[in-house]
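can u pls check wat happens w/ adenosine-5'-triphosphate
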Amino acid sequence: MRSATPIQPVSVKNTLNPVEYSMAKKQNLIIGLDIGSHAVKVCQIQKAGSDYRLLAVGSAAIPPGAVEDGVLQDPDEVAKAIVELFKNLKIKSKRVGISISGYSVIVKKISLEVMSDEELADYIIEEAEQYIPFDIDDVYLDYQVIRAGSDEFDRSDIMLVAAKKEVIDDYLDMLQELKLLPVLVDVDGFALENIWECASDRQDNVALVDIGASKMNINIIADGASVLARDVVVGSEQLTNQIANTLEIEFEKAEKLKLGQIPAGEYQEELEEIFTQTCTQWVLEINKAIDLYMANNPDKPLVSLVLSGGGSKVRGLKQYIAAETGLDVVAFNPFSTMKVNEKKIDREYLKVIAPELAIAAGMAIRPAEF
Ligand SMILES: Nc1ncnc2c1ncn2[C@@H]1O[C@H](COP(=O)(O)OP(=O)(O)OP(=O)(O)O)[C@@H](O)[C@H]1O
Ligand SMILES: [Mg+2]
């Protein structure tokens, strides 16, 4: 991991260890902890040789408002969910990775003239302020060279990440209270990219789209690198809110109607209209990102769109996005190439929950040694 300041915990993208391990050697990986606005997701994976084995997965809902816009508003409730998950899943390991998103994190690609590692580190510390809209003293900084200068390119592309200290520190304080050891603070979009690269052997240009409860993360990967990454403030909670408002019913009942846990009955028509309206807006946002990407990369067409997150499970959404974007739409199963501890994990449960676990899985494949 390359760091601008040694104490900072934000880690940019891929620190996956290039060291070769003998086939039988087990490697300790960290516990992936994805603290979303709807639920906390936990994932534990083991690596032996080049094989990944899923040891434990789980999700626990948190009360609405406990995490808002990526900010920890109610640490006690979130801590309760984490404790419950660790206890139920019998996870003993303390080394965890969390990821952040929302207004408190800025990810920016910058192009700089070629310089040595030391010069680059100094440059970032000195000049980062001009690239980010926050006071430099208020943020943790990290960066990674995503394309080094060469004979072909006389400049280097750098991915710069700045995350608000107060927001990160709230998470770290909560984890420390729980006697957990946060060894990684990732960014949702990078975690998604890492698990996609791990789970797919294809080098195609793809759009990764994670639709959560309150935000949609879009990350377009071309030639093996992230070209466009953005968070959009739409998600499945929008559906619940609209159902609750339109039908003048409680949020909990609206959520059940949305998930089909209670029959639509007399509300069928209104529900369909709400789904259509909201999904149209989601597709509009996806198409905006794709159009921007295509305008800048006309020679690198996208092959498919990979969907994850709880919101991606809206019935018919896959087909709708396929029709509106003209892309092959794939429901992402981050564990498709992994072995699964069948004694502990029910196959059916895993099938249902897999899309929500992409980001947690993206952290759970990172080595614990860094
Ligand atoms: N079948 C379904 N149809 C529609 N929405 C669903 C379905 N299953 C789950 N969801 C929704 O997915 C959301 C949870 O997904 P996820 O766990 O990815 O969100 P999150 O990570 O907590 O949120 P965010 O990333 O936006 O902070 C909830 O709003 C839930 O209602
Ligand atoms: Mg999420």
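The chain has two domains: 26-201+337-364, 236-329.
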